[in-house]
Amino acid sequence: MPVRHHRRPASAAPRRHTLVPACLLALLCGCGAGTGDAATPGAPEGADAPAPAAPAPPVAADGRPFTVTEVASFDEPWAMTFLPGNGRRLLVTEKAGALRLLGADGTIGTITGVPGVDHGGQGGLGDVVPHPDFANNGWLYLSYAEAGDGDTRGAAVARARLALDDAGGGRLSDVEVIWRQVPKVSGRGHYGHRIAFGPDGHLWISSGERQKFDPAQDMRSNLGKIIRLNDDGSVPADNPFAADGGVAAQVWSLGHRNPLGIAFDAQGRLWEHEMGPSGGDEFNRIERGANYGYPLVSDGDHYDGRPIPDHDTRPQFNAPEATWTPVISPAGLVIYDGATFPQWQGDALLGALSGQALVRVSIDGDSAREAERFDMGHRIREVEQGPDGDVWLLEDGESGRLLRLAAPGAG
């Protein structure tokens, strides 16, 4: 089936780590020709000539608008973030619990002091994000799966102060857990636990429903929700359900399944994607207090074949702006605003696991649609924008490669 696009109804609310010599995998093929200043043939004398057409973006030999450089490889990488400040220093999480530092010179070091993680299935060390004022306070935020009583586990978010050393590594200190999924449950799936800071400085966390379905609609649980907190883990007084107290006070939106990407655009709007069940991966614009319907509605069905009513049948739930059937299994999300690919500015870039692709989603006002899909030949776990506007990808799995996408002809 093709990708379907929705408009919301008006009524809706330590293994070995390999450093790979940088090599271009694609070469410059050509670029669009510019236009001259001559008047348009046949135009009246003195008439204004039409504005020259913008040159077409350059393409590589394989027809894609980027070249690919393999930079390094990691063991089950899950997330990455560039540290603020001088030099291109990149932190990469590995699911088994290691936090790696890739220096600007290509060396890979280790950050010690990471909390213990429950590694298995979809669980382990997850996201990593610096505080907006990291240059002054040194706070680093990590998400991960942690064990509970008996055969239970859940996601947690901790913050710690990061200090780098002269040997290319560093350590975490003052580690404190500031958020946990409630309750901890059995199984090792659907943690979500993507984290982001909003333009107002609040901390946002995506919390999966842990493959338990009903908690996504249960306000006694923070599973299947988008969470909004202060940077210390306390609850903002203006959250939509703050007056309800308990974990409900943390909630910004509900009815989510397995949200593995959250990002803000230049207008301050929050976008999210999540894996659907058998069909119906979603790309959503997140609104205050809104219910996105899972598991009561979905554009997919249960894996055992039982149908789930479509979003169109229940207009009281927010419908996704775009869905995918067959699924792409989205993971990682950035709203691009760099100069390397000006034709992508304002668009969302998603990794696709089962789709083995980089997917570009065009955002037009409050609506969105898939605009391009680039076959990468591997499961893409994470997408990040570099300080210079290049796009960086992490492949999923053992020996997952770190790739840098640059404009053809760039050094």
TrEMBL record:
Single GO MF descriptor: oxidoreductase activity
Keywords: Oxidoreductase, Signal
Record's keyword annotation contains Signal: yes
Stretches assigned to coiled coil: none
Domain Glucose/Sorbosone dehydrogenase residue range list: 74-404
Sequence segments annotated as region (Disordered): 39-62
EC number assigned by the record: 1.1.5.-
Leader sequence residues: 1-38
Compositional bias segments (type: Low complexity): 39-51
Family matches, as InterPro entries: 6-blade_b-propeller_TolB-like, Glc/Sorbosone_DH, Quinoprot_gluc/sorb_DH_b-prop
Xref: Gene3D superfamilies: TolB, C-terminal domain
This protein's name: Aldose sugar dehydrogenase YliI
Gene coding for it: yliI_2
